[in-house]
Structures are given as structure tokens and as C-alpha cells.
Amino acid sequence: MPAGPVPALAGAAGTVRPPAGEAGLALRSRVGGETRRAPGVRGGGGPRIPRKPGAAGPRGPRRLYEQARRAWDRPLTAYYLILGSSLLITVLGLVMVYSASMIQALEYSLPASYFFQKQFVAAVIGTALLLIASRMPAKLHRALSYPLLVITVFLMVLVQVPGIGHAVNGNQNWIYLGGPFQLQPSEFGKLALILWGADLLARKQDRRLLTQWKHLLVPLVPVAFLLLGLIMLGGDMGTAIILTAILFGLLWLAGAPTRLFAGVLCVAGFVGLMLIRTNENRMSRLECIGAIDLGPEGECWQAVHGIYALASGGWFGSGLGASVEKWGQLPEPHTDFIFAVAGEELGLAGTLSVLALFAALGYAGIRVAGRTEDPFVRYAAGGVTTWITAQAVVNIGAVLGLLPIAGVPLPLFSYGGSALLPTMFAVGLLIAFAREEPAAKAALAVRRPGVRWKTMRRRVKKRPSGER
After folding, report:
1. Ramachandran angles phi, psi of 201, nearest 5°
2. Bridge partners of 37?
3. Backbone angles phi, psi at 433, to 5 degrees
4. Whole-angstrom Cα distance, residue 72 to residue 92?
5. Residue 130: count of CB within 10 angstroms of its CB
6. Which 3-state string (H, E, C) describes 32-70?
7. 3-class SS at 412?
8. Alpha helices of 160-257 — where are they, by DSSP H?
9. CB of 198 within 8 A of CB of 204?
10. What radius of gyration do the chain's Cα atoms show?
11. What is the mean pLDDT of the chain?
12. Per-residue pLDDT band at 71 (split at 50, 70, 90)
């Protein structure tokens, strides 16, 4: 090396500055360790001060917590949670429908995959509806709300016409479409009430009418009672409970006063109690909450065998297809009590996974409803979240013996095309709303191949010919 003093890098008089090509180089400490810039130094130049070993940022659990929190607050978190959790629940539900329905199909002298094939066709159609709903703008959803409500009410009236409507398990809520296909219009009534109610409340909020109790209740509550009356004519108490939960969810999101909300809740509770007390079947279901004995006449057979299935599953279950309760012991193993079969074959780990997926879907729906400025999106997203979470709680609570058996399927999981199709369309609504968040829309635009290529081409500068 040439002898002589080392040129200084400071800006004092009489010092020699480094060449322009070396202005971006930083001095590193000979002691080793990580380097950092001196405070107040901008750009790539300037000396770097060695950082102490303990000052490298949070480590261990604190670092993992910070990383998880940053990932949880990303703009596309709700979008991926809704899409991923709903698809996982649907796929796992197809697997469990095939496993839980094989014996039932053989008892009816049908192929073992009979129910699975019908559910698979419904899942394919539902996926198409999900994709269509996820690409539709909110204005088109609002435009479809009134036609959907009118068509649903018309079909629910047809159910009560002799020769058109058919009864299944004592509930006359079905219309046969020919062959093995049938339709339950009351399942589409949930979606119709959400879309129509969200559009109604959004228009009234724009006109500042929701501060008056008469505009808050009329015509939302009368139309909801019309749907409830048509459902109860067929004797379907479970669907009526879910529709009532949707109504309360919309009123809660609209900011109903506590007195008004409590009054409507008391009226609905009194009517529900009277409907239960006047029906022996419903009274027996209410008495079987927490039952561990079959009863003198076996009235708690389904509830007790559901507990048997869960108890015999253990930590990791007996394996797919190895359920014992589905061999004629557990009624409705592929519809209302499919969660019990899942607990027996997949164990506690499988049931907790299903619960975690529903919890993620519910959280994402609440996040979409809470972060939007569009009143229609808030009411619709809140209504769909209330629908899916309330129905999951009622179904799982009945299987666990914590709630009476209401006869409602587990959303996206149980067998039933009439329940699967509107639910997947509703999930598509949530995906569309999650995509329309300003931050999520910007993040999705950056992820497009053309936009990313142009953005990267602007950011990457061309290097000089002699630089490597």
C-alpha cells in the first residue's frame, strides 16, 4: 500500500474527499458484527456505527409475535382467510360426507358413493356461484336483492301447495325437481333476507332515517316475520332460529337501541317458547340437553350416540372410514350429526381444526364489515357472518349436548345441496367485499403480472458498464 496519510471522509477544510464512484461505500468496523448508519446520514454514503449485539431488535417469542401481528394486519389477510377457510371446510366436508354416508347409502340399496356424488355436483355448482359472486360489484348485488326475495317467497308459498311441496322427516319444506334432486327454498330465504335487508338499511341510512324506530323496524321486521311464518308452516324450527339470528344481526348493525332490541328479542323468545311447548317432539329435544341416558323410550338416542361418537374418537380419532356409530347407531350421520362422525374418525385434533376454520371465517367476515365505509357492504357482510357463525354454533352445540337438536346442517360441511349453494354464494359475497377494500384493491393490483413487471422495471436502475 502507498505510504502517507489516509484521506479523511469528513467535510472539514483541507481534507480529501473520496472519488464519486466510491461515495456509496460505507466503512465497516474491524471489530465485526452488524453495522448501522450514523444518525442524520441520508442515502448510501456516510460511516456506519457498529450495533451492539443486544440491539438487533426483538428476538424469541416477542419477535414471532411482532411478525404474526404484522402479517395479521396486512390488507389481504381477510381475503385469504375467507377464501382459504371456506375452501378447506368444503373439501373436508366432501371427505366426511363420503365417509359418513356410505353405510346409509348401502342401507337404501344405493351405491356407496351416492350421496358423495350429489354433494360433489353441488360443490362444483357452488364453486361457480362463489366465483361469480366474488366478481360481481356491490351495485349488482343490490340489484338482485329484490328479485331474489320475490322468487324465494313464491317458492316458499309453493311448498305449502299440496302435490308440489313434500315433507322430509316431518318438515314440509321441500320441492322435488325431478329424479333425485330436490330444493329447500327456505335455505335461499336466508340469503334473500340478508341482501334485501342490507339494501333497505343502507338506503335508509343514506337518508338519515335509521334514528327513527319505525323506519328501523318497518318493513324489515314484517318481511322477516313473513318468511318465518312460511317456514314455521312447514314445521322447520331450526331454519326459523337461524333466520331470527340474521334479523337480530341486521338490527344490531343498524344501531338499534337497547330497549328496542331487547323488546324484539323478548317477543321472539316468547313466541319460540310457545312453539316448543306446544310440540312434543320439540319438548323432548329440549329435555335431551346434556343427556347421558337414552331415556325410557329412547327419545335421547341421537343426542347420546353423538356424545358416544365424540368420546370414542380420542385425540386423533380412529381413522377415516372407521367410525362405528355410523353403522346404524347414529341417525343422520352425514347431515345434522356429521360433526360427531368427524370427531370419531379425526379425533379432537380434527374437530378443533374445523372449529379453527370457522373461527377464522367468522373473524374475517367481522373484519370486512368493520373496515368498510359502504353501509350496504357492512350490513351484508355482517349478515352473512351472523348466518354462518350462528348456524355453526347451533349445529355444533347440539352435537356437544349444549343446545337442543335444531336439525340445521353445518355450513359448507354437511350434506345438502340446498344448503351448500346459497352458503357458497354468500362466501363469494364476502370475498368480493374483501377485494373492494382500498388497501386490498391496491395490493391485488400490484400482484398482477403486467403491473408488477412495469413497477419492477421502473425501480431497477441500469448499472454502469464497468460495475459488477
Report:
1. -65, -35
2. 48
3. -70, -40
4. 25
5. 26
6. CCCEEECCCCCCCCCCEEECCHHHCCCCCHHHHHHHHHH
7. coil
8. 185-206, 213-217, 220-233, 237-253
9. no
10. 30
11. 84
12. confident
